[in-house]
Design goal:
It is a single chain. The strands form 6 sheets. The chain has a 4-stranded mixed β-sheet with strand order 13-15-12-16, covered by helices on one side. A 3-stranded mixed β-sheet has the order 2-5-3. A 3-stranded mixed β-sheet has the order 7-10-8, with helices on one face. It is elongated and about 130 Å long. The protein is α+β, with helices and mostly antiparallel strands. The protein has helices at residues 2-31, 46-56, 118-127, 187-196, and strands at 35-38, 59-69, 78-81, 86-92, 96-104, 108-109, 131-138, 146-151, 157-158, 163-169, 177-178, 201-207, 217-221, 227-228, 234-239, 244-247. The chain has 3 domains: 31-103, Trypsin Inhibitor V, Chain A, CATH 3.30.10; 108-169, Trypsin Inhibitor V, Chain A (2-Layer Sandwich), CATH 3.30.10; 177-247, Trypsin Inhibitor V, Chain A. The longest helix is centred in the first third of the chain and has 30 residues, at 2-31.
């Protein structure tokens, strides 16, 4: 009984060995025998690549539209192929290899950022594979807002991730004034005086006040003597029989 089991095991093992050897033989005969390693066309000119493929019986297609930037492969030479080269990647005769050509190194130029805001400039630098260097603000040009200068200058060819420093023009600070005393003066006379100095009366409230005729300022904010500029909102309370509030939009000077 034991001899019969041992014989069956040996017979089964022999079948596996024969099957494996047969499979390997026929694979090499039918498959590997008619296949060849994928050639390496990277760095070759189109004429060289065609000659190599012609000798192997392989077709070559050059994509006329696709271009790839490369710092290693000169412009016009093969930079990419659709099958990895080597002995482990087999192809049959008649196979078509598709390749793309190099466009040469990527040329990066500092974009024209004049007049853009600092936030927009940072976004555009990132899109160009550049980064922000120093960012400075100054009142450098009349009636100019946004970027007025870049270092390196606009149009300069630079490597990737080059820092670009920017100078941003900001409006000059408004002139400071000392808040005058507006109380007991008519609003119609005070308004031209205030606006003539670049200030703005933002809020006017009407309030009944016995003994004072209509249109006279009875309270003010900021108070007399306080610092004030075009960025500050001035509010006044004016005498009138009918109380109410008139809101006037504040404008930036």
């Amino acid at each position: 009984m034991k001899r019969g089991c041992l014989a069956n095991i040996l017979f089964t093992a022999l079948l596996f060995v024969v099957f494996g050897a047969s499979t390997y033989f026929w694979f090499n005969f039918f498959v590997r025998g008619t296949s060849l390693p994928t050639p390496n066309l990277i760095g070759k000119s189109v004429s060289q690549a065609r000659a190599i493929c012609g000798d192997l019986g392989v077709n070559l297609t050059v994509d006329p539209k696709a271009k790839r930037n490369s710092d290693k492969v000169p412009a016009g030479f093969v930079v990419w192929q659709n099958r990895d080269p080597g002995n482990t990647n087999l192809i049959k005769r008649g196979t078509t290899l598709r390749v793309e050509l190099s466009a040469g190194p990527l040329v990066i130029r500092v974009p024209d950022l004049d007049g853009t805001s600092a936030g927009t400039a940072v976004l555009r630098l990132g899109q160009q594979n550049l980064k922000l260097g120093n960012l400075a603000y100054a009142d450098v040009a009349a009636n100019a807002n946004g970027i007025v200068s870049a270092d390196p200058p606009n149009g300069t060819v630079v490597p990737a991730q080059t820092p670009v420093s920017l100078l941003v023009s900001v409006p000059p600070a408004p002139l400071p004034y000392v808040m005058p005393d507006l109380i007991d003066h008519p609003l119609d006379e005070i308004r031209p005086y205030v606006e003539g100095h670049g200030l703005k009366i933002a809020t006017v409230k009407f309030e009944a006040y016995p003994g004072i005729r209509d249109g006279i300022i009875i309270r003010q904010f900021p108070l007399r003597g306080a610092p004030v500029s075009a960025r500050d909102a001035i509010s006044v309370v004016v005498s009138k029989q009918e109380e109410g509030i008139i809101e006037q939009p504040t404008t930036t000077q």
